[in-house]
Amino acid sequence: MASFQAYEPARFRAYLSEPITRCPQREKGRIQTLVQKIAEALKLPPYLTSVYIPSLVTSPEKRSNMTPEHVYLLDRVRIVEADYILVVADQTSFGIGGEVELATSLGKPVIFFTREQKLSRFLIGTPVNVTRLEPEKRDFIRYRDWRDLKPQLLTLVEDVIARLGQSQTFHIPHWDIGKRLQTLRKNHGMSPEQLALRAGLWPAQIRLWEMHIDEVRAEFEVYQGDDASDIGEISLNFRQLEQLANPGLDAIHRLCFTLDVGVAELVGETSDQIPAQGPAKVLNAYQGQLRDARLESLKMRAHQYDITYREYDELRQILVDEVLESSYPSRVVNHVSETEFAEALRAIRHRSFV
User: Fold this and answer.
1) Given a cut of 90, is residue 204 above it in pLDDT?
2) Contact indicator for 50, 13 with CB cutoff of 8 Å
3) Which residue has the higher pLDDT, 213 or 225?
4) For the chain, how far is it from start to end, CA to CA, in angstroms?
5) Does residue 201 have a pLDDT over 90?
6) According to the per-residue pLDDT averaged within each range, which of 25-39, 170-184, 287-301 is highest?
């Protein structure tokens, strides 16, 4: 897996939680072989899943220079991007426990598998443990080797993605908590440190909740292009940015009390986000948010290039209209990347010379 790419284009995405730091050296090779076989199997239909493997990106062996804060942030981003979580629970791992708890807070389905006889009841007791979807309601899949694990795991993954396909969550308009929090904080003349002190929170929490997608990307620029495996592009849609912030109910209560606002004002909820006219209105509101954001991003890219009005109109059709019409809603990112823009412009100009 020397050419591993973080989250390649695919219908679904899975985050593979595995023991890294405390894993005995003799086990690392076996687990890596197993992980590679899982990733290859899930690429194929009907799974169509790209698997993110932390040990190939953020492990101490790959990036010893990456700070703990950046490891946490990048792995958090990748869990947010994931549709479901796979857990190799063959060794005790603090990282696995943290990843499962974050997945639980986001409602991400988790599948456990292990060669052990028993696992921590706290770990497998999470309400998003979908291994219990099976008729025998097991707490985890017990396996000996890949041949034993493969039929059990793939059957369960197929059940999980079938349920994902039935989900309606992408129809729900987002709450831009980070932007609202930053605006309200500044309106009160408070720094992140002052707000944290008054609300009984930590400044780093405030900064995380307020982070814009460009700030998230900037955090990892120093690691891009090094000799380790590719970090991969960070492209979060509205729903995923909301999940990345993800302040708990207690934190929201503290922030609202400190800023002297109601919950609706903090999360930015407005009357057009309330489905008074049924699901169609909610879907239209969400698509409207995506359209506005991609248009704004397209205009910013257009200013960087010397293009004609006709080219801009064609770019709008390709990068906004067609993307929203043809893509799976939860996969549409709320910005036009530089690569996406350049490729579309190149195609338009190529056609004009043919």
Assistant:
1) yes
2) yes
3) 213
4) 40
5) yes
6) 25-39
Residue 302 neighbours by CB under 8 Å, 6+ apart = 312, 315
Angle at 58 between CA 240 and CA 153, to 5 degrees: 70
pLDDT in tens, 251-287: 999 999 999 999 988 987 654 444 445 555 556 666 7
H-helix segments, 191-278: 192-199, 203-210, 213-219, 238-245, 249-259, 263-267
Q: Which two tokens stand for residue 298?
A: 């397209």
Q: Could you tell me the fold of the domain covering 177-353?
A: 434 Repressor (Amino-terminal Domain) (1.10.260)
**Rounded distance between C-alpha atoms, residue 224 and residue 227, angstroms:** 9
What residue spans in the chain does CATH classification 3.40.50.450 cover?
A: 12-167
- pTM comes to 0.75
Angle ∠(237,241,243) on CA atoms, nearest 5: 120
CATH 1.10.260.40 positions along the chain are 177-353
Question: How buried is 341 (Cβ within 10 angstroms: 0-12 exposed, 13-18 middle, 19+ buried)?
Answer: buried
Assigned architecture for domain 12-167: 3-Layer(aba) Sandwich (3.40)
CB 147 within 8 A of CB 156: no
The residue with tokens 């090779």 is 29
Q: Measuring CA to CA, which residue among 111, 123, 265, 102 is closest to residue 183? A: 265
Nearest in space to 53 (alpha carbons), one of 94, 10, 82, 73: 82
Interval 311-351: pLDDT, tens? 888 898 888 888 877 765 556 777 787 788 888 888 888 77
| HSE, side-chain direction, 13 A CA sphere, residue 213 | 20
Which residues share a beta bridge with 110?
85, 129
pLDDT value, residue 272? 45
The values of phi and psi at residue 192, to 5°, are -55, -35
